[in-house]
Amino acid sequence: MYRSAAKRLPHFPSTCFNWRPHIPQTPARTINPPRFCTSATSDPLSGKNPNQFEPTSSSSSSSWAEEERARSHEKQSKRSRPNAHYEDEQTKVLNASLRHVIRLGWSEAAMFAGAREAGLSPSIVGSFPQKEAALVEFFMDECLQRLIDIIDSGEEVKDLVPSERIAKLVKIRLEMQAPYISKWPQALSIQALPSNVPTSFKQRVALVDEIWHAAGDESSDVDWYVKRSLLGSIYSLAELYMLTDNSPDFHDTWAFLNGRVKDAFDLKKTIQEVKYLAEAVGGGLGSSLEGFMERAFQK
């Protein structure tokens, strides 16, 4: 969950998640004496009638049910627990595949090359349901984690005002894509596929939320959505601008980014400019964000 929104999550008692499979207790069994036995002679050694069987006690029945319940819970845990070793191999493949993206693109070919580099059979690529999308998602998650590490260290953004801090963090994040800039349009196309949109959207929301969190934002009302929608638009615009930027070290992109962040904090731009930024994220979001921003800037 996003760090700045986690405090608003409802609190659930810990007992809500301690699910245990319900196994009915087996009632005590009473075994009838054999039909062919007509004698009631007692056992000379035990002094008990051999035809009389004591029923199982309730305590032993309860103990048996507890053991069955624990055994069933253990089996369920094993089924739901992913194979850690197999996941490690997949991670190795994805990590190695990134080194082949510049030459082969965000493709199965890059993943095959990554598998061979990791010393694994290329057949492991078949274990990824969405293959190319898995590679892009892995890269996005890795970049987010690197950005979080930078934020937590505090070295890059200390002594900066919020607007400068946001511009700095967006620049750091976009610089992580610089080595793949020639292949990034392909990554954007993969992210735009209908089956990949939910994950892509969630990753971008997590990114802008981390940046706002680093800037000290603690809003919890409609401003939370407005700020993240606005920063998401700025990030997307700078990302697209970067694709066509031929200036040394993307100098023009950073100038464009700083200008947009300054405008966002200035709060003197027109509603039409805000609409333009919002529509850059996608036509489906434009109308919903427009209402938020109109209410925000009318205050």
From TrEMBL:
This is Ubiquinone biosynthesis protein. It comes from the Eukaryota. GO terms for biological process: ubiquinone biosynthetic process. Residues 197-267 form the COQ9 C-terminal domain. It is found in: Mitochondrion. Membrane-associated protein that warps the membrane surface to access and bind aromatic isoprenes with high specificity, including ubiquinone (CoQ) isoprene intermediates and presents them directly to Coq7, therefore facilitating the Coq7-mediated hydroxylase step. Participates in the biosynthesis of coenzyme Q, also named ubiquinone, an essential lipid-soluble electron transporter for aerobic cellular respiration. Its main location: mitochondrion. It holds the Pfam family COQ9. Residues 66-77 have a biased composition (Basic and acidic residues). Keywords: Lipid-binding, Mitochondrion, Transit peptide, Ubiquinone biosynthesis. The keyword Transmembrane does not apply. One of its GO terms (cellular component) is mitochondrial inner membrane. Residues 38-56 have a biased composition (Polar residues). Residues 27-90 are annotated as: Disordered. Pathway: Cofactor biosynthesis; ubiquinone biosynthesis. Signal peptide: none annotated. GO terms for molecular function: lipid binding. NCBIfam families: diverge_rpsU (TIGR02396). Belongs to the COQ9 family.
